[in-house]
Design brief:
Distance between the termini: 27 Å
Helix content: 10-25%
Oligomer: single chain
Strand content: 35-45%
Shape: elongated
CATH topology: OB fold (Dihydrolipoamide Acetyltransferase, E2P)
Number of helices: 1
Radius of gyration: 15 Å
CATH architecture: Beta Barrel
CATH class: Mainly Beta
Structural class: alpha+beta
Order of helices and strands: EEEEEEEEH
Number of domains: 1
Strand order of the largest sheet: 1-8-6-3
Number of strands: 8
CATH superfamily: RNA polymerase II/Efflux pump adaptor protein, barrel-sandwich hybrid domain
Length: about 90
């Protein structure tokens, strides 16, 4: 599941990634804080949308991105296991 830069207010069009609380490969639980975002109006914590594994971080700390930009991707544990299985089978 892709984690997108949310619309944090009617007039907010972008936000800056302040801090990531997880690293690629970390297990995450639905509702746990994944990152902090700051806009010209607010600072907020973004929660993980599903339980799984953080498989990518697409925007670095300090970068400013538009609403709707993919920030990261979280895969369900079953998806990660399936990819690992396929990788082993291909060797």
């Amino acid at each position: 599941m892709k984690v997108l830069m949310p619309q944090l207010g009617e007039t907010v069009t972008d936000g800056t990634i302040v801090a990531w609380h997880k690293h690629i490969g970390d297990t995450v639980e639905k509702g746990e804080v994944l990152l902090d975002i700051e806009t010209d109006k607010i600072s907020t914590e973004i929660e993980t949308p599903i339980s799984g594994v953080l498989v990518s971080i697409d925007v670095a700390e300090g970068e400013t991105v538009d609403v709707g930009t993919v920030l990261a991707e979280v895969a369900e544990v079953a998806e990660v296991a399936e990819v690992a299985e396929d990788s082993v089978a291909a060797v």
